[in-house]
Write a structure and sequence with these properties.
Blueprint lengths: L2 H7 L13 H10 L12 E6 L2 H10 L2 H6 L11 E7 L1 H8 L13 H19 L3 E6 L6 H5 L6 E9 L8 H4 L5 H4 L8
Antiparallel strand pairs: 1-2, 2-4, 3-4
Helix pairs in contact: 2-6
Bound molecules: flavin mononucleotide.
């Protein structure tokens, strides 16, 4: 698929067929997280691949899927056959930026979140490239996921990328608002340009 087509095709998917994803496709999607750039090439992004149905059901519970369904929505996390849990390690960045060729002051911007975002985008796109779909639920909505998966102290869970065969779904209220006009978000030479 042409990259420009893949970009247009990608949508957050929150409705999945309960059909397994080929393990090699899942591995390629998880591996995509590690093809991204990283500040100082610190490579502080990790992925926990979860396919076990009981563990996925526990993650869905943590995400409040019962309340989601009570609002008339189809199950999201429990139906998705794979959860790729995206994690970042601030300590890896602090260690890298303490090295002689780096300045720790550069971490005034917590680059691990930026690298996590880049990894997220690559995984979402890799899923489309595999003929699958992917959604993202932020860890703010997943309290308790770190102990459930044995994620150690010092590792931050960014969220869960749900991967599977997409089912049709209505656009969300956010998406229905439409994209901001490009004239507001792309400027030429100066902010006013
Ligand atoms: C950093 C980030 C966090 C997001 N968190 C959530 C989330 O917790 N729950 C959710 O349903 N969607 C979440 N989304 C999906 C956005 O709502 C979605 O990307 C946006 O509405 C545009 O839709 P599209 O990706 O289909 O173009 C998140 C997206 C990003 C980039």
């Amino acid at each position: 698929m042409e990259f420009r087509d893949l970009m247009r095709k990608r949508r957050m998917v929150r409705r999945f067929r309960r059909e397994q994803v080929p393990p090699d496709a899942l591995q390629r999607i998880a591996a995509a997280a590690h093809r991204g750039p990283s500040a100082g090439f610190a490579q502080g992004v990790s992925v926990v691949v979860v396919t076990d149905p009981t563990r996925r059901a526990r993650i869905a519970d943590l995400a409040g899927e019962a309340a989601w369904r009570a609002r008339g929505r189809d199950p999201w996390l429990s139906a998705a056959p794979a959860h790729l849990v995206l994690c970042v390690e601030p300590g890896v960045y602090r260690a890298r930026y303490a090295e002689a060729d780096k300045d720790p002051a550069a971490l005034a911007i917590p680059w691990w979140w930026v690298d996590g975002g880049a990894a997220l985008m690559l995984m979402l796109q890799a899923a489309v490239d595999e003929g699958l779909g992917a959604g993202f639920l932020g860890a703010h909505a997943l309290e308790g996921i770190a102990p459930l998966l044995g994620v150690p102290d010092g590792v931050e869970v960014l969220g869960v990328v749900t991967v599977g065969h997409p089912l049709p779904e209505e656009p969300t209220a956010s998406v229905r608002r439409g994209r901001r006009p490009r004239s507001e978000t792309t400027h030429h030479e100066t902010w006013g340009g």
